[in-house]
Amino acid sequence: MELTIGRRALMAGGGLALAAGAAFAGTTPAAAATAVTKNAKRVYYASDYGIFPRATMPLVNLPVSPTDPTIRRYSAGKEGKPNVQAIGAPDTEAVDQSDEINAFLQQIATLGGGIAIFEGDTNQLVGYGVKKPIVMLTEVAIWGLGWNKTTFMLIDGANCSVFVNKPKTNYHDVRDLRINGNRWGQTFPDALKFSGPGVDLSSDRHPANPDNWQYNSHGILLVPDYTAPNAGPYGDTYSNFENIFVVNPYGSAAMTNKVGGEIRFRNAVSMNAGGNGFTAGYDTYLSEVTVANSEYDGFLQQSGSTRFTNTKAFWCGQVLDRWQVGGGAVKMRRASIGYKIVNGCCEFSSAEAQNCGGEGFWLQDAESVNGQLSSIANNMIADTAAISNPDGWGPVPNNYANDAAWNSGPSSPKPAPGDHPGVRLKGKSKYNNLSITSRTAGPQAGVGLGQQAYALGIDYFGGAKENNISVTHSDGYNGQRAKGILTPETPHSAIPHNWILANGKPLSDAVRKAPPTIDEIDAAGTYIMMGSGYTYNPFPGGIVRITCVELDNHFALEAVRLDASGAPFTNIKYNDGLGWRGWVQQSRA
Question: Which residue ranges does the record annotate as region Disordered (predicted)?
């Protein structure tokens, strides 16, 4: 069998290398790609077959006008850095290299498989132009030469994901490269609907909605069949992604929640995603993965189970130029969540959410979630400090539909620090075992940062109960922002129906504000009533301490008025299992 000599040997033997170069002279890159012949070591360099990075990123940002569609658009937040557009020669679109790259990969697969290696430019100014998905094959591993060198760039108007799995395939391997999703260059005609400049949007096709993935472009997309959105599942998918940097994807850096199997990401970064950073599920493993500046949630697990090991989400909810939805250059922030876990279980080992717009962690109808959660200085939606909000961006709710803020109108509801605790348990979130660290951030450049007011919010009436939670909650800045363990709207019933250890002490032992209706007290502890407004107050209008004790599921309350030392009586109320009995006055003597 005839074998081509490896690339390193060609470089060493000048005459042979010259002959190889001449063989490709005058041929198109696509034609050259078909010339792949079997390599003894099964390692194939794309450049040996005429495939070189040809899409460029200009060094200088061009002027931007919301009324002139011919002027290239870019992120104002990236001033001083390369434009995100993938272009070719001056005033031309980048060359689409998708077909030749896919042909190159298919040839390797036909020869029995191997490793396809793609090179690049160390300044990240030149990459491979992509206008059709690069299809990952079971037989071929796709390797670059590192984040700082190999780049795949999505061309303007591609409106597709960069890497997709071949339908009904398994075992994919991609590593050591960068993906530039060029989110501001994607158009998705008729996919995003709005009746005015940023008003009344149809959010069902927005990049943050993983159910309509076919209208989005992601860095890496794994679905049953990328050519057939309604294709049913085909079984588990086992894939491996290492050392991947995804910048500016229109949707997510990676979306895996439409397939099952053990899909692994190690040492991966999502930067400036238009939707969620990582949309994961069904046994996805995330290790050393970071999401920064995603417009929506950092990590979204919609169903199934995910393992988070040494992961971080920060600055989620930072909205940049909203060109696609008619918002022009208006900037804002939204109450995006660091980690949103829905309808599933997962494992956390050293997971951190920092400086996100809303909650650090949100568990929605999630059961048997275990692990270590660090929620630091979130609630950035409400932060007005110049260092964290230099342009005075206006706050908007997480769901932006019908939001008038883009027209300089009021935003309703107005987010506030108390609205977004570090960790929130919603719906039937139970049997969870969580260790939570919640705090504000220290001063940065002499200015405070972060609005971590409350550590925990529990939706007991929605079914959040039987959780074992340990909370360490402190103010790392100036003692002014950490308000308490539980949010004010957390039902009082959440305390006896969850085991909560707060700063080393059972929360049931802490002195708490009495609920408006004293009949709601159903947990042992000490409560304080301040003034009027309490139903069945034994001392109306006064400051009252109520001590609740419990024995054999029977409760008794003792009330002492603290602001009237001459009050002759202490009032006692008890529950013998048949309901509360009235207050009984007992003489202090």
Answer: 398-427
Say which residues have a Cβ less than 8 Å from residue 282's Cβ, sequence separation at least 6.
256, 257, 259, 260, 261, 263, 303, 304, 305
d(CA 544, CA 440): 32
- Pairing status of strand 284-292 against strand 299-301: unpaired
Q: Where are the alpha helices (DSSP H) in 421-462?
A: none
Domain end point (choices 215, 242, 269): 242
Which residue segment(s) compose the domain that 116 sits in? 1-242
Residue 11 lies in a domain: yes
Count of the separate structural domains present in the chain: 2
As a 3-state breakdown, the chain gives helix, strand, coil percent values, each rounded to 5, of 10, 35, 55
The three-state secondary structure class of 266 is strand
**CA 11 from chain center: how many Å?**
45
CA distance 239 to 175: 11
Q: How many CB atoms lie within 10 A of CB 413?
A: 9
Asked, for residue 570, whether it belongs to a domain, the answer is yes
Last residue of a domain, one of 242, 276, 297: 242
pTM: 0.79
- Mean pLDDT by runs of 10 across the 589 residues of the chain is 37 32 38 69 92 74 39 36 57 85 96 94 80 95 93 89 92 94 71 40 62 85 89 85 93 89 94 90 92 91 91 82 42 79 93 90 95 86 58 52 44 63 94 92 60 86 95 73 80 86 80 80 79 78 81 78 64 66 60
